[in-house]
Amino acid sequence: MKKRVMILGSTGSIGCRTLDVIRDFPDLFEVSGLSSLSKFGVLKEQVREFHPKAIAFGDMGKWEVVKNFANQVGIQIFKGKDGLVKMVEEVETDIVVVATVGSAGLFATLKAIALNHIIALANKEVLVTAGHLVMKLAREKNVPILPIDSEHNAIFQCLIGQDKNAIRRIILTASGGPFRKFSPEDLKNVSLKDTLDHPTWKMGPKITVDSATMMNKGFEVIEGKYLFDISIDAIDVVIHPQSIIHSMVEFIDGSILAQLSRTDMYLPIQNVLTYPERKKTTLEPLDLTTISALSFEKPDLNIFPCLGFAYEAGRLGGTYPTALNASNEIAVERFLKEEISFIDIPRIIEFVMKSHSNSSDPDLETIQETDKIAREMARNYV
Protein backbone atom coordinates (compact mmCIF):
# COMPACT_ATOMS: atom_id res chain seq x y z
CA MET A 1 0.00 0.00 0.00
CA LYS A 2 1.08 3.54 -0.71
CA LYS A 3 2.01 5.74 2.24
CA ARG A 4 -0.38 8.67 2.57
CA VAL A 5 1.57 11.89 3.10
CA MET A 6 0.16 15.16 4.43
CA ILE A 7 2.39 18.21 3.95
CA LEU A 8 1.92 21.19 6.26
CA GLY A 9 3.59 24.07 4.46
CA SER A 10 3.53 22.51 0.99
CA THR A 11 4.27 25.73 -0.91
CA GLY A 12 7.54 26.48 0.90
CA SER A 13 10.96 25.20 -0.16
CA ILE A 14 10.78 22.00 1.93
CA GLY A 15 7.18 21.35 0.97
CA CYS A 16 7.92 21.70 -2.75
CA ARG A 17 10.96 19.45 -2.45
CA THR A 18 8.85 16.86 -0.62
CA LEU A 19 6.46 16.84 -3.55
CA ASP A 20 9.45 16.31 -5.87
CA VAL A 21 10.23 13.12 -3.95
CA ILE A 22 6.60 11.98 -4.11
CA ARG A 23 6.53 12.71 -7.84
CA ASP A 24 9.59 10.51 -8.36
CA PHE A 25 8.15 7.61 -6.34
CA PRO A 26 4.50 7.39 -7.46
CA ASP A 27 4.26 3.72 -6.48
CA LEU A 28 5.23 4.47 -2.88
CA PHE A 29 3.35 7.64 -1.93
CA GLU A 30 0.13 9.56 -2.39
CA VAL A 31 -0.78 13.01 -1.07
CA SER A 32 -3.53 13.16 1.54
CA GLY A 33 -3.44 16.88 2.35
CA LEU A 34 -1.61 20.13 1.55
CA SER A 35 -1.49 23.50 3.26
CA SER A 36 -0.26 27.01 2.59
CA LEU A 37 -0.40 30.26 4.49
CA SER A 38 -0.86 32.53 1.47
CA LYS A 39 0.55 31.11 -1.81
CA PHE A 40 -2.71 30.17 -3.50
CA GLY A 41 -1.28 30.05 -7.02
CA VAL A 42 1.35 27.47 -6.05
CA LEU A 43 -1.13 25.49 -3.95
CA LYS A 44 -3.63 25.38 -6.81
CA GLU A 45 -1.05 23.83 -9.16
CA GLN A 46 -0.06 21.30 -6.49
CA VAL A 47 -3.69 20.27 -6.01
CA ARG A 48 -4.16 19.77 -9.74
CA GLU A 49 -1.09 17.54 -9.96
CA PHE A 50 -1.29 15.53 -6.73
CA HIS A 51 -5.06 15.37 -6.04
CA PRO A 52 -5.08 15.60 -2.22
CA LYS A 53 -8.22 14.85 -0.23
CA ALA A 54 -8.03 18.24 1.49
CA ILE A 55 -6.22 21.56 1.73
CA ALA A 56 -5.75 24.11 4.51
CA PHE A 57 -5.25 27.80 3.78
CA GLY A 58 -4.43 30.60 6.16
CA ASP A 59 -4.90 33.91 4.33
CA MET A 60 -8.47 35.03 4.98
CA GLY A 61 -8.17 37.78 2.39
CA LYS A 62 -8.12 35.12 -0.34
CA TRP A 63 -10.59 32.80 1.35
CA GLU A 64 -13.53 33.05 -1.09
CA VAL A 65 -11.30 32.40 -4.10
CA VAL A 66 -9.68 29.39 -2.42
CA LYS A 67 -13.06 28.07 -1.25
CA ASN A 68 -14.52 28.30 -4.77
CA PHE A 69 -11.54 26.43 -6.19
CA ALA A 70 -11.84 23.67 -3.57
CA ASN A 71 -15.51 23.28 -4.39
CA GLN A 72 -14.73 23.07 -8.12
CA VAL A 73 -12.23 20.26 -7.69
CA GLY A 74 -14.26 18.51 -4.99
CA ILE A 75 -11.91 18.53 -2.00
CA GLN A 76 -12.26 19.50 1.66
CA ILE A 77 -10.92 22.85 2.74
CA PHE A 78 -9.91 24.06 6.20
CA LYS A 79 -9.27 27.70 7.05
CA GLY A 80 -7.45 30.00 9.40
CA LYS A 81 -5.10 29.30 12.25
CA ASP A 82 -7.05 26.20 13.33
CA GLY A 83 -7.13 24.77 9.81
CA LEU A 84 -3.95 22.74 10.15
CA VAL A 85 -5.16 20.99 13.30
CA LYS A 86 -8.59 20.27 11.82
CA MET A 87 -7.10 18.85 8.62
CA VAL A 88 -4.79 16.58 10.63
CA GLU A 89 -7.74 15.50 12.75
CA GLU A 90 -10.25 14.83 9.96
CA VAL A 91 -8.20 13.58 6.99
CA GLU A 92 -6.74 10.07 7.05
CA THR A 93 -2.98 9.94 6.59
CA ASP A 94 0.11 7.96 7.55
CA ILE A 95 2.86 10.59 7.61
CA VAL A 96 2.61 14.28 8.48
CA VAL A 97 5.42 16.41 7.09
CA VAL A 98 5.72 19.50 9.28
CA ALA A 99 7.31 22.10 6.99
CA THR A 100 5.58 25.23 8.25
CA VAL A 101 7.56 28.35 9.12
CA GLY A 102 7.97 29.36 12.76
CA SER A 103 5.88 27.95 15.59
CA ALA A 104 2.69 27.64 13.51
CA GLY A 105 2.99 23.85 13.24
CA LEU A 106 3.12 23.08 16.98
CA PHE A 107 -0.55 22.29 17.61
CA ALA A 108 -0.93 20.32 14.39
CA THR A 109 2.16 18.29 15.34
CA LEU A 110 0.74 17.50 18.77
CA LYS A 111 -2.58 16.48 17.20
CA ALA A 112 -0.80 14.26 14.65
CA ILE A 113 1.17 12.52 17.41
CA ALA A 114 -2.01 11.99 19.43
CA LEU A 115 -3.50 10.28 16.36
CA ASN A 116 -0.41 8.04 15.97
CA HIS A 117 0.77 9.57 12.69
CA ILE A 118 4.47 9.39 11.87
CA ILE A 119 6.03 12.86 12.09
CA ALA A 120 8.52 13.97 9.43
CA LEU A 121 9.82 17.11 11.10
CA ALA A 122 11.35 19.96 9.12
CA ASN A 123 10.26 22.72 11.49
CA LYS A 124 12.87 23.50 14.15
CA GLU A 125 10.60 25.79 16.10
CA VAL A 126 8.17 23.02 17.10
CA LEU A 127 10.78 21.44 19.37
CA VAL A 128 12.40 24.74 20.33
CA THR A 129 9.07 26.07 21.57
CA ALA A 130 7.71 22.96 23.28
CA GLY A 131 10.21 20.13 22.87
CA HIS A 132 9.56 18.59 26.29
CA LEU A 133 5.83 18.30 25.59
CA VAL A 134 6.21 17.04 22.02
CA MET A 135 8.76 14.35 22.87
CA LYS A 136 6.88 13.26 26.01
CA LEU A 137 3.72 12.69 23.97
CA ALA A 138 5.68 10.95 21.21
CA ARG A 139 7.16 8.53 23.75
CA GLU A 140 3.76 7.87 25.31
CA LYS A 141 2.17 7.16 21.92
CA ASN A 142 5.28 5.39 20.55
CA VAL A 143 5.24 7.72 17.54
CA PRO A 144 8.49 8.19 15.55
CA ILE A 145 9.75 11.76 15.09
CA LEU A 146 11.90 11.51 11.95
CA PRO A 147 14.05 14.61 11.31
CA ILE A 148 14.17 16.15 7.84
CA ASP A 149 16.65 18.90 8.71
CA SER A 150 19.84 17.83 6.95
CA GLU A 151 21.89 18.08 10.16
CA HIS A 152 19.54 16.12 12.37
CA ASN A 153 18.83 13.64 9.62
CA ALA A 154 22.60 13.08 9.39
CA ILE A 155 22.80 12.41 13.14
CA PHE A 156 19.73 10.17 12.91
CA GLN A 157 21.48 8.09 10.25
CA CYS A 158 24.77 7.96 12.18
CA LEU A 159 23.01 6.70 15.32
CA ILE A 160 21.16 3.79 13.70
CA GLY A 161 22.29 0.63 15.54
CA GLN A 162 24.48 2.57 18.00
CA ASP A 163 24.42 2.52 21.80
CA LYS A 164 23.19 5.90 23.01
CA ASN A 165 25.35 5.59 26.13
CA ALA A 166 28.44 5.44 23.92
CA ILE A 167 27.94 8.98 22.54
CA ARG A 168 30.54 11.52 23.62
CA ARG A 169 29.12 14.43 21.64
CA ILE A 170 27.11 15.45 18.61
CA ILE A 171 28.79 17.78 16.13
CA LEU A 172 26.44 19.98 14.11
CA THR A 173 27.96 21.47 10.99
CA ALA A 174 27.06 24.96 9.76
CA SER A 175 27.86 26.63 6.46
CA GLY A 176 28.54 29.92 8.21
CA GLY A 177 26.21 31.70 5.81
CA PRO A 178 27.26 34.78 3.85
CA PHE A 179 28.87 36.64 6.76
CA ARG A 180 31.28 34.17 8.37
CA LYS A 181 34.31 36.29 7.35
CA PHE A 182 32.74 39.58 8.40
CA SER A 183 33.72 41.69 11.40
CA PRO A 184 31.15 43.16 13.82
CA GLU A 185 31.78 46.49 12.08
CA ASP A 186 31.06 44.98 8.65
CA LEU A 187 27.68 43.69 9.83
CA LYS A 188 26.42 47.24 10.39
CA ASN A 189 26.17 47.75 6.64
CA VAL A 190 24.59 44.41 5.70
CA SER A 191 21.53 44.70 3.45
CA LEU A 192 18.52 42.42 3.10
CA LYS A 193 19.75 41.42 -0.36
CA ASP A 194 23.16 40.47 1.06
CA THR A 195 21.50 38.39 3.76
CA LEU A 196 19.26 36.44 1.40
CA ASP A 197 22.21 35.50 -0.84
CA HIS A 198 23.14 32.23 0.87
CA PRO A 199 26.33 30.66 -0.53
CA THR A 200 25.25 27.01 -0.25
CA TRP A 201 21.53 26.35 0.28
CA LYS A 202 18.37 27.57 -1.45
CA MET A 203 15.78 28.16 1.27
CA GLY A 204 12.84 30.37 2.17
CA PRO A 205 13.54 33.94 3.36
CA LYS A 206 12.96 33.35 7.07
CA ILE A 207 15.31 30.39 7.41
CA THR A 208 17.86 32.12 5.15
CA VAL A 209 18.00 35.05 7.59
CA ASP A 210 18.23 32.59 10.49
CA SER A 211 21.16 30.94 8.71
CA ALA A 212 22.91 34.30 8.30
CA THR A 213 22.56 35.04 12.05
CA MET A 214 23.24 31.36 12.91
CA MET A 215 20.05 31.34 14.93
CA ASN A 216 19.02 28.34 12.83
CA LYS A 217 22.02 26.48 14.22
CA GLY A 218 21.10 27.57 17.73
CA PHE A 219 17.62 26.20 17.17
CA GLU A 220 19.18 22.95 15.94
CA VAL A 221 21.20 22.69 19.16
CA ILE A 222 18.00 22.95 21.23
CA GLU A 223 16.16 20.63 18.83
CA GLY A 224 18.99 18.09 19.06
CA LYS A 225 18.76 18.12 22.85
CA TYR A 226 15.16 16.90 22.62
CA LEU A 227 15.39 14.68 19.55
CA PHE A 228 18.34 12.68 20.79
CA ASP A 229 17.78 13.08 24.55
CA ILE A 230 21.25 14.46 25.17
CA SER A 231 22.73 17.28 27.26
CA ILE A 232 23.00 20.55 25.39
CA ASP A 233 26.64 20.73 26.47
CA ALA A 234 27.29 17.53 24.51
CA ILE A 235 26.29 19.30 21.28
CA ASP A 236 28.97 21.30 19.49
CA VAL A 237 28.75 23.48 16.40
CA VAL A 238 31.50 23.78 13.80
CA ILE A 239 31.50 25.88 10.64
CA HIS A 240 32.00 23.72 7.56
CA PRO A 241 31.67 26.02 4.52
CA GLN A 242 31.55 23.23 1.93
CA SER A 243 28.36 21.75 3.51
CA ILE A 244 29.34 18.24 2.38
CA ILE A 245 29.44 16.71 5.87
CA HIS A 246 25.96 17.34 7.23
CA SER A 247 26.81 16.45 10.84
CA MET A 248 28.81 13.98 12.92
CA VAL A 249 28.64 11.88 16.06
CA GLU A 250 31.72 11.28 18.22
CA PHE A 251 31.73 8.18 20.44
CA ILE A 252 33.57 7.47 23.68
CA ASP A 253 36.15 5.30 21.88
CA GLY A 254 37.23 8.31 19.79
CA SER A 255 35.48 7.21 16.61
CA ILE A 256 33.57 9.84 14.64
CA LEU A 257 30.80 8.86 12.25
CA ALA A 258 29.81 11.42 9.62
CA GLN A 259 27.09 11.57 6.98
CA LEU A 260 28.08 13.08 3.64
CA SER A 261 25.92 13.91 0.64
CA ARG A 262 25.11 16.58 -1.87
CA THR A 263 23.64 19.85 -0.60
CA ASP A 264 20.09 19.08 -1.63
CA MET A 265 17.17 18.70 0.77
CA TYR A 266 15.72 16.05 -1.54
CA LEU A 267 18.02 13.47 0.07
CA PRO A 268 17.04 13.79 3.76
CA ILE A 269 13.39 14.07 2.71
CA GLN A 270 13.67 10.85 0.71
CA ASN A 271 15.48 9.19 3.61
CA VAL A 272 12.65 10.03 6.02
CA LEU A 273 9.76 9.18 3.69
CA THR A 274 11.20 5.79 2.71
CA TYR A 275 12.55 4.90 6.19
CA PRO A 276 13.46 2.23 7.26
CA GLU A 277 14.21 1.26 3.66
CA ARG A 278 16.68 2.95 1.35
CA LYS A 279 15.67 3.56 -2.25
CA LYS A 280 17.81 4.47 -5.23
CA THR A 281 17.74 8.24 -5.60
CA THR A 282 17.06 10.09 -8.82
CA LEU A 283 19.90 12.55 -8.06
CA GLU A 284 23.47 12.25 -9.25
CA PRO A 285 25.69 10.81 -6.49
CA LEU A 286 28.30 12.88 -4.69
CA ASP A 287 31.65 12.73 -6.51
CA LEU A 288 34.31 12.90 -3.80
CA THR A 289 37.08 13.45 -6.37
CA THR A 290 35.65 16.89 -7.15
CA ILE A 291 36.02 18.07 -3.54
CA SER A 292 39.30 19.88 -3.06
CA ALA A 293 39.05 20.25 0.73
CA LEU A 294 36.82 19.85 3.76
CA SER A 295 37.51 22.61 6.27
CA PHE A 296 36.23 23.34 9.77
CA GLU A 297 36.36 26.33 12.12
CA LYS A 298 34.84 27.46 15.39
CA PRO A 299 31.96 29.95 15.18
CA ASP A 300 32.76 33.42 16.50
CA LEU A 301 30.03 34.44 18.94
CA ASN A 302 30.97 38.11 18.43
CA ILE A 303 29.77 37.69 14.83
CA PHE A 304 26.99 35.23 15.68
CA PRO A 305 25.61 36.22 19.11
CA CYS A 306 22.30 34.49 18.33
CA LEU A 307 24.04 31.12 18.59
CA GLY A 308 25.16 32.04 22.10
CA PHE A 309 21.63 33.12 23.04
CA ALA A 310 20.32 29.75 21.90
CA TYR A 311 22.84 27.81 23.99
CA GLU A 312 21.90 29.95 27.00
CA ALA A 313 18.16 29.39 26.43
CA GLY A 314 18.71 25.67 25.98
CA ARG A 315 20.67 25.39 29.24
CA LEU A 316 18.13 27.43 31.22
CA GLY A 317 15.22 25.51 29.71
CA GLY A 318 11.64 26.15 30.78
CA THR A 319 10.09 28.94 28.74
CA TYR A 320 13.39 30.55 27.70
CA PRO A 321 13.48 28.70 24.34
CA THR A 322 9.89 29.80 23.67
CA ALA A 323 10.82 33.43 24.33
CA LEU A 324 13.92 33.03 22.16
CA ASN A 325 11.91 31.74 19.23
CA ALA A 326 9.10 34.29 19.54
CA SER A 327 11.47 37.27 19.72
CA ASN A 328 13.47 35.94 16.78
CA GLU A 329 10.33 35.54 14.65
CA ILE A 330 9.34 39.16 15.26
CA ALA A 331 12.87 40.45 14.66
CA VAL A 332 13.28 38.53 11.40
CA GLU A 333 9.80 39.57 10.26
CA ARG A 334 10.74 43.24 10.77
CA PHE A 335 14.11 42.77 9.07
CA LEU A 336 12.46 41.17 6.03
CA LYS A 337 10.24 44.27 5.82
CA GLU A 338 13.43 46.39 6.07
CA GLU A 339 12.13 48.12 9.18
CA ILE A 340 15.26 47.28 11.20
CA SER A 341 18.91 46.57 10.44
CA PHE A 342 20.62 43.19 10.50
CA ILE A 343 22.41 43.93 13.78
CA ASP A 344 19.08 44.87 15.39
CA ILE A 345 17.99 41.21 15.23
CA PRO A 346 20.25 40.03 18.10
CA ARG A 347 19.59 43.28 20.00
CA ILE A 348 15.86 42.57 20.08
CA ILE A 349 16.37 38.94 21.09
CA GLU A 350 18.80 39.87 23.85
CA PHE A 351 16.37 42.45 25.23
CA VAL A 352 13.53 39.92 25.39
CA MET A 353 15.75 37.22 26.90
CA LYS A 354 17.01 39.55 29.64
CA SER A 355 13.46 40.70 30.40
CA HIS A 356 11.94 37.22 30.44
CA SER A 357 10.57 35.65 33.62
CA ASN A 358 11.11 31.90 33.35
CA SER A 359 8.68 29.08 34.08
CA SER A 360 10.68 25.91 34.68
CA ASP A 361 8.19 23.21 33.66
CA PRO A 362 5.63 24.92 31.42
CA ASP A 363 2.39 23.38 30.19
CA LEU A 364 0.95 24.25 26.79
CA GLU A 365 -1.06 27.18 28.14
CA THR A 366 2.05 28.70 29.74
CA ILE A 367 3.98 28.27 26.50
CA GLN A 368 1.23 30.05 24.58
CA GLU A 369 1.22 32.92 27.05
CA THR A 370 5.01 33.16 26.98
CA ASP A 371 4.98 33.26 23.19
CA LYS A 372 2.40 36.05 23.22
CA ILE A 373 4.27 38.14 25.82
CA ALA A 374 7.66 37.70 24.14
CA ARG A 375 6.27 38.77 20.76
CA GLU A 376 4.71 41.85 22.31
CA MET A 377 7.97 42.75 24.08
CA ALA A 378 9.87 42.39 20.80
CA ARG A 379 7.36 44.58 18.94
CA ASN A 380 7.49 47.23 21.66
CA TYR A 381 11.30 47.23 21.58
CA VAL A 382 11.22 47.76 17.81
Structural class designation: alpha/beta
Beta-strand fraction estimate: 15-25%
Give the topology string: H per helix, E per strand: EHEHEHEHEHEHEHEHHHEEEHHHHH
Strand order of the largest sheet: 4-3-2-1-5-6-7
Detailed description of the structure:
Helix 6 (124-141) packs antiparallel against helix 13, helix 12 (305-316) runs parallel beside helix 14 (344-355) and helix 14 crosses helix 15. Strands 4-3-2-1-5-6-7 form a seven-stranded parallel β-sheet, sandwiched between helices. Strands 9-8-10-11 form a four-stranded mixed β-sheet, with helices on one face. It is 45% helix and 15% strand. The chain folds into three domains: 3-148, NAD(P)-binding Rossmann-like Domain (Rossmann fold), CATH 3.40.50; 152-315, no CATH class; 317-382, Orthogonal Bundle (Rna Polymerase Sigma Factor, Chain: A), CATH 1.10.1740.10. The protein has 382 residues and is an alpha/beta fold. It contains 15 helices and eleven strands. The model has no long low-confidence stretch (mean pLDDT 94). The N and C termini lie far apart (52 Å).
Write the layout of secondary structure elements.
Blueprint: E1 3-8, H1 13-24, E2 29-36, H2 40-50, E3 54-57, H3 63-73, E4 76-79, H4 83-90, E5 95-98, H5 106-114, E6 118-121, H6 124-141, E7 145-147, H7 150-158, E8 167-174, H8 192-196, H9 205-213, H10 215-227, E9 235-239, E10 245-251, E11 256-260, H11 266-274, H12 305-316, H13 320-336, H14 344-355, H15 364-381
Helix pairs in contact: 4-5, 5-6, 6-10, 6-13, 9-13, 10-12, 12-14, 13-14, 13-15, 14-15
